[in-house]
């Protein structure tokens, strides 16, 4: 089912007022190993995702990004791909992928797949050929050198070069040795990878999240880099102009398809000024992840600096921002905030009211924390098991999973934080996310409006969002003590991160670690019959 969702009545209202649907989107990241398991082997699968799509819809997100589902030896949990045009048996089959795309579209959900252009698996037939002899026609599809330089690989893999005994050269891998880097300067590689994109675009996906989008181009002189000498992996700062050419080619291809397909890049460089370059002149990425909030502690200075910087640098470049607090590579934000549910609730208000597209990592809508993984249970060579724990669906063990043992243990408090438990509690985190998304969807100011910082005490972040007559204010108190804020005008609390509850006149006091979304007191309120009923999955 190619193109955008089939049932327009189910799509977000936002998609009607702009063809740039992704600006109004709320994206939900599915990590397939840990989302839902239909076949009972303890590892999530595509049939499991289909069974639980109604959860995403009931939450109110309108787009899913699914981490890699392709054939893979799983040295890096699927980011080491041995066949881009097939589904790994652990997740199901190509027919399941087609069914998933169709079922998502039928519910008004768009689907983004993870595209991993920088490297394949060492088990990919292309690499097997490439390493078979120096004169193999695919030798140049990868990056081979007689001498290594000082470039370092990520995931603690040491040198980015591995010696190949049989052919007497080193090959380059910015990640594990099982993930050799493709040579995108070879036109046959470009053609083959464009074929991969077409394969999935033809099957109807709505776009891609592009893994390490800044890594496909490498310094052609292979000069040593002092930051690598100091121990940093090249993937953390690689920024060769050729990656832009690669992205322009991908963008052109994607734009040739109908339906506003979208590219979201992982440009894992902690420099907003550099990241903004990857939007090109509107001819590279549509959106790029903005990484500083993924590491940020619960600190108003860090957030204020990052939000101001995004505003100052992206706005003039007409680059649309993204906001993300957690993903499969980083500690979950509730854990990062010291396990505080109160802070995680306030952060949800911030995530869903900033200017830009929010990305929700599965389970953050439940307030999940990282799993505690004993040394003998560790799976990821990069030490990133923590955020990857299975989603607890039901209160009672095995929490809606059909196996006695899941591939990773459940996160702490699995029973009380389960989806089932939280649906029945109106004050739960799940309902907070649902209400925030619903409110965002109904508010042009929150989806597309301007952003302006308001004067506030240093430990409070306050901003105003406006679009036409629609006017909202958000105040987030990062402090552990109550703080006042002096706002012009009269405001009503529309959403409160604390269970104190909304729908009262704002008295200018913020409770410790409280966030509120305010609307003008005299704004006409929607009649009850106009309000959407919350969906139950
Ligand atoms: C970024 C992905 O998010 C991560 O999980 C993976 O290990 C690396 N890229 C390499 O593909």
TrEMBL record:
Cytoplasm recorded as keyword: no
UniProt GO BP: oligosaccharide catabolic process
Protein's recorded name: DUF3459 domain-containing protein
UniProt family annotation: Belongs to the glycosyl hydrolase 13 family.
Coiled-coil stretches noted in the UniProt entry, renumbered to this chain: none
Chain positions covered by the region annotation Disordered: 502-537
Pfam families reported in the protein's UniProt record: Alpha-amylase
Assigned keywords, A-Z: Glycosidase, Hydrolase
Molecular-function GO term, any one: alpha-amylase activity
Signal peptide: none
Biased composition (Low complexity): 528-537
Residues in Glycosyl hydrolase family 13 catalytic domain copies: 29-440
